[in-house]
């Protein structure tokens, strides 16, 4: 799978909502998990850190959302290189919504704290 929207858990629900199908239940929160490679369907290449960190996004503007407030962070428990994130609708279990690659992989060691300083998501292109 390439990076981006998960069709079953996100894209199809939003599209069905737009066409007047079943209403999509809005997540009560968004949670980010870190990965050492492409997350695939959300669970591949998981970091040794299994905790998902809650992320808060600003209101959508120009078809995009971006992190706001306290940035998600993780106390690292192993030496590894974090290169991707996945976004979920629950702190445990739940539904995988989308994934993204970091702008640059980040090498970490046990005892480091990894903090995500930016994460955006957009629906594009937008018509003028």
What secondary-structure arrangement, pairings included, does this model have?
Elements: H1 7-18, E1 30-35, E2 53-55, E3 64-66, E4 73-75, E5 80-88, E6 96-108, E7 113-115, E8 120-122
Antiparallel strand pairs: 1-2, 1-5, 3-8, 4-7, 5-6
- Alpha-carbon Rg, integer: 15 Å
Q: Percent of residues in beta strands?
A: 25-35%
Extract low-pLDDT stretches: none
Structural class label = mainly beta
Shape: globular
Count the strands?
8
Give the number of domains.
1
Provide mean pLDDT, rounded: 93
- Helicity range of the residues? under 10%
Query: SSE order in H/E notation?
Result: HEEEEEEEE
Main sheet attributes: strand count, strand direction, barrel closure? 4 strands, antiparallel
């Amino acid at each position: 799978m390439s990076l981006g929207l998960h069709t079953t858990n996100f894209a199809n629900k939003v599209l069905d909502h737009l066409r007047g199908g079943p209403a999509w239940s809005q997540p009560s929160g968004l949670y980010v998990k870190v990965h050492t490679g492409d997350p695939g369907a959300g669970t591949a290449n998981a970091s040794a850190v299994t905790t998902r960190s809650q992320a808060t996004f600003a209101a959508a503007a120009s078809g995009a959302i971006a992190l706001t407030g306290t940035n998600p962070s993780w106390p690292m428990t192993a030496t590894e290189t974090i290169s991707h994130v996945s976004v979920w609708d629950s702190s445990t279990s739940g539904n995988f919504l989308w994934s993204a690659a970091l702008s640059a992989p980040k090498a970490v060691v046990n005892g480091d704290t990894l903090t995500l300083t930016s994460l955006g998501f957009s629906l594009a292109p937008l018509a003028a």
